[in-house]
């Protein structure tokens, strides 16, 4: 069965917003390799509304490879309760029950279903136990302000660390899966 995976750039103070403003001085070959393996392992992408609206104006005409080809050619599922349509090649709007849609997608043959960016969607999926694997690329920077992955509130969720690596520039790449309940 396919897995739902998420990989997020995150600062020491938990900020996930606008990593393009704070992560590139630590973006080394090890981070690039991890990103490449993440995109090679997925053949579907889940996007939240905000990420979709930010990306739909950039990626369709971008030449930033290898991600431009990947995100443009891969089927995308845009989760939104407010959009009426999506206008990006290979994009499908998910307005209904995202859990039901993910269950349907996970039953289909294929590789992982990756959540691209979309920290609000990631938080929602974690709350509903719909993420099978979460990778945080923790950058050695305190951003000070911006949208954080966890804004407060929410139920206790236990996660198990299944892989860790520290890159040459100090990025901690931490991969978690939901802890098995006993």
Summary keywords:
alpha/beta, 27% strand, 182 residues, single chain, 5 helices
List segments where confidence is low: pLDDT < 50 over at least 5 consecutive residues: none
C-alpha termini separation: 23 Å
SS strand fraction = 25-35%
**Widest beta sheet: strand line-up:** 4-3-2-5-1-6-8-7
What's the overall average pLDDT, rounded?
A: 92
Relative helix content: 10-25%
Number of discrete helical segments = 5
Order of H and E elements:
EHEHHEEHEHEEE
Question: Could you give the count of β-strands?
Answer: 8
Rg:
16 Å
Largest sheet: 8 strands, mixed
Class per helix and strand makeup = alpha/beta
Q: Tell me, what's the shape?
A: globular
What does it look like?
The structure is a single chain. The chain has 5 helices and 8 strands, in the order βαβααββαβαβββ. It has an 8-stranded mixed sheet, sandwiched between helices. The two termini are 23 Å apart. Strand 7 and strand 8 form a beta hairpin. It is α/β, with parallel strands linked by helices and 182 residues long. The chain is globular. The model has no long low-confidence stretch (mean pLDDT 92).
Blueprint (SSEs and pairs):
Blueprint: E1 4-11, H1 29-40, E2 42-48, H2 49-55, H3 67-73, E3 76-79, E4 91-94, H4 98-107, E5 112-116, H5 119-127, E6 133-139, E7 159-166, E8 172-178
Parallel strand pairs: 1-5, 1-6, 2-3, 2-5, 3-4
Antiparallel strand pairs: 6-8, 7-8
């Amino acid at each position: 069965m396919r897995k739902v995976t998420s990989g997020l750039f995150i600062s020491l103070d938990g900020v996930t917003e606008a990593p393009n403003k704070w992560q590139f001085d630590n973006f080394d070959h090890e981070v690039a390799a991890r990103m490449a393996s993440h995109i090679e392992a997925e053949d579907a992408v889940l996007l939240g509304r905000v990420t979709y609206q930010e990306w739909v104006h950039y990626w369709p005409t971008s030449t930033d490879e290898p991600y431009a080809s990947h995100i443009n050619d891969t089927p995308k599922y845009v989760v939104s309760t407010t959009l009426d349509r999506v206008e990006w090649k290979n994009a499908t709007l998910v307005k209904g029950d995202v859990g039901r849609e993910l269950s349907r997608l996970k039953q289909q043959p294929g590789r992982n279903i990756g959540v691209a960016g979309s920290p609000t969607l990631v938080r929602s999926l974690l709350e509903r136990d719909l993420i099978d694997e979460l990778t945080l690329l923790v950058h050695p920077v305190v951003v000070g302000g911006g949208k954080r992955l966890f804004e407060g509130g929410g139920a206790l969720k236990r996660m198990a660390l299944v892989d860790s690596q520290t890159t040459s520039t100090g990025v901690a790449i931490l991969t978690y899966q939901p802890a098995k309940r006993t």
